[in-house]
Amino acid sequence: MPLATTRRAGLVDQVIDQLRTAVTQGEWPIGERIPTEAELVDQLGVGRNTVREAVRALAHTGLLEVRQGDGTYVRATSEVSGAIRRLCGSELREVLQVRRTLEVEGARLAAAERTDDEVAELWALLSRRETELRDGRWEDFARTDAEFHCAVVRAGHNRLLTELYRGLTEVITASVAATSSITPGAEHVPEIGHEGLARAIAEQDAERAAAEACGFLDELLQRIEPS
After folding, report:
1. DSSP letter string, 39-71
2. SS percent in the chain: helix, strand, coil, step 5
């Protein structure tokens, strides 16, 4: 896939999009070194700093790996799989602990403040999540599960909490995939459902909603504790 010269506005974002597309469409396979910075500058028609910033951003998501003195290599085919490669052990435990802190209060607020439309959205997301789980579409499943939890927090109508939670979308999605039984190579364990959480929110039972949110996150934390 030839890279196109970019427009002036949003140059870094445009370069990120083009590099991401080259990776996800297999133009640059996993383990392959991408073109040098000078080559990218020439192909894209942008400055070195723009290319450098775009590569740095994709390295942060786990798609690329910069090896000093050697070049930049493709590390994963999507942000989710790239994040999973980085998210493990104590880091995964910390993410789950932060999720528990935010999601328990988010569930409590959602039960008190949710609208009928927001309840309908939760059930729709759970239905989609179940279909993706059944079909083994693990990346779609991880994204939908993370979207469900974001919708729960959003239903609490606390803008600051919602913004804090939204800022963690990448690592939350990665934590879902990393703890899921449909992640390739993962040991099979019973999948944790969220019907009880959605039902508690629908019935406006704040304490039960908080307990449901705390319960499944505690179970995930127990799963990853070293034996």
Report:
1. HHHHHHT--HHHHHHHHHHHHHHTSEEEETTTE
2. 65, 5, 30
Sign of CA dihedral 92, 98, 99, 101: positive
- Asked whether the CA dihedral 205, 206, 208, 212 is positive or negative, the reply is positive
pLDDT at 183 over 60: no
b/e 47-63 (16+ beta carbons within 10 angstroms → b): eeebbbbbbebbbebbb
The helix (H) or strand (E) run that includes residue 187 is none
Per the structure block, which two tokens stand in for 192?
Answer: 């944790």
Mean pLDDT of 84-100: 76
Name the strand (E) or helix (H) holding 193: none
Dihedrals phi, psi of 67, to nearest 5 degrees: -110, 110
pTM of this prediction? Answer: 0.63
Whether the Cβ atoms of residue 55 and residue 91 lie closer than 8 Å to each other: no
Alpha helix segments (H runs only) across 136-168: 138-154, 159-166
Question: For residue range 163-180, what is the model confidence (pLDDT) as tens digits?
Answer: 888 878 777 887 887 777
